[in-house]
Design a protein that fits this description.
single chain; alpha/beta; eight-stranded parallel beta barrel; two-stranded parallel sheet; elongated; binds 3-methyl-2-oxobutanoic acid; binds zinc ion; acyltransferase
Length: 388
């Protein structure tokens, strides 16, 4: 049976924490409108107590997002932060308060100088207060992947009883590995099912060792039904889980993950480019799903296979995610088939008799270059009077 996997986008909160990526109100609104088109279920759009600008942005986005997208702001487990979230979102159609509080020993000792019992009480008080203001409350156990399991469970049990509707398990420092993180989620899910099966179990991973997508997918496989991610995987340090990677992973293997998201995947490419342009953060060329080379093929064997049938080397079509059509990139490894495809696409007709010679000249030229541009091919073809 298929489950719904909720997608919370935090590009405008965790993503905006990238140095130099700070946005103004209009820029935030433009991205928020695009996230609505992308059909994210929830978006986290700022930290209202942190500055007037963040407060105003959360407020403005809450008012334009409509009832289909839950909008949230983040705060610590203190009354003033919760009040700021409430004030910024009280006019929103579908608001949520998000509280974060550390649960690992290192956070409790070094950051708060508090005992585990004191921290737990702080979390419960914060949730009770937030719940008195709004029906939807998410509780994040910061640094969960480095926390003691039984302490974490005690906290989860207590905050659920206090009114939390979503429990978020973050791998705050990107420490987790897929199998272990999957087991952790499985254990929490089993107990949560007995405690209250209506609670949404969420994960929030960071990419410090390049495992954010793998950890998030392992969590889904083991019972999580909400993922937190950002467009292009931007975020604090090495970034967050990339929305497009997780969504397409689930889409390709719906039976394995026993679920589906509501994301309008045709809007993925446009959203990726918009976030990159507005935030001034380039997308690496080989980035999965949205990189410039994600649908470009350069090896001769691959080009030949693709020209016979796209299915041979394409598991996702660029059209599916709204990207420009597949590209055959000519290199010295391109075969005759690919060369002929490109020259025809450029509008040239090469007489059969000189084809071998022209192809040979192409290889000589391509050997000198890192990349062969259309203009290089055109210059070569124009040098033959026989070619029309
Ligand atoms: O990385 C983290 O732990 C966070 C929390 C606020 C979910 O960003
Ligand atoms: Zn984070």
């Amino acid at each position: 049976m298929s489950r719904k996997i909720y997608v919370l986008d935090t590009t405008l909160r965790d993503g905006e924490q990238v140095p130099g990526a700070k946005l103004n109100l209009n820029e935030k609104l433009e991205i928020a409108r695009q996230l609505v088109k992308l059909k994210v279920d929830m978006m986290e759009v700022g930290f209202p107590s942190s500055s007037k600008g963040d407060f105003e942005a959360v407020k403005a986005i809450g008012q334009i997002a409509g009832k289909d997208v839950m909008v949230t702001g983040l705060g610590r487990a203190v009354k003033s932060d919760i009040d700021a979230i409430y004030e910024s979102l009280r006019g929103a159609a579908n608001p949520m308060i998000h509280i974060v509080l550390g649960s690992s020993n290192v956070h409790m000792e070094k950051k708060f100088s508090k005992s585990p019992t004191q921290v737990l009480e702080m979390g419960v008080e914060a949730v009770k207060y937030a719940k008195s203001l709004m029906p939807q409350v998410q509780y994040s156990l910061e640094d969960a992947s480095r926390s003691d399991f039984e302490y974490m469970w005690k906290t989860i049990e207590a905050v659920v009883k206090a009114g939390a509707t979503i429990i978020n398990v973050p791998d705050t420092v990107g420490f987790a590995v897929p199998e272990e993180f999957g087991n952790l989620i499985c254990k929490i899910n089993d107990r949560l099912m007995n405690l209250n099966p209506n609670i949404i179990l969420s994960v929030h991973c960071h990419n410090d060792t390049g495992l954010a997508t793998a950890n998030t997918l392992a969590a889904i496989r083991n019972g999580a039904n909400k993922v937190e991610c950002t467009i292009n995987g931007i975020g604090e340090r090495a970034g967050n889980t990339s929305l497009e990677e997780v969504v397409m992973g689930i889409k390709l293997h719906p039976k394995y993950y026993r679920g589906e998201t509501n994301i309008n995947i045709e809007e993925i490419y446009k959203t990726s480019r918009m976030v990159s342009a507005i935030m001034g953060l380039d997308v690496q060329v080989n980035k999965a799903i949205t990189g410039e080379n994600a649908f470009a093929h350069s090896s001769g064997i691959h080009q030949d296979g693709l020209l016979k049938s796209k299915e041979v080397y394409e598991i996702i079509t660029p059209e599916e995610v709204g990207a420009p059509p597949m590209e055959i990139v000519l290199t010295a490894r391109s075969g005759k088939h690919a060369f002929s495809y490109v020259t025809k696409k450029l509008g040239y007709n090469i007489p059969e008799i000189i084809e071998p010679e022209v192809y040979k000249s192409f290889l000589t030229m391509a050997d000198q270059k890192k990349e062969v541009y259309d203009s290089d091919v055109m210059t070569l073809l124009e040098s033959y009077t026989e070619i029309t």
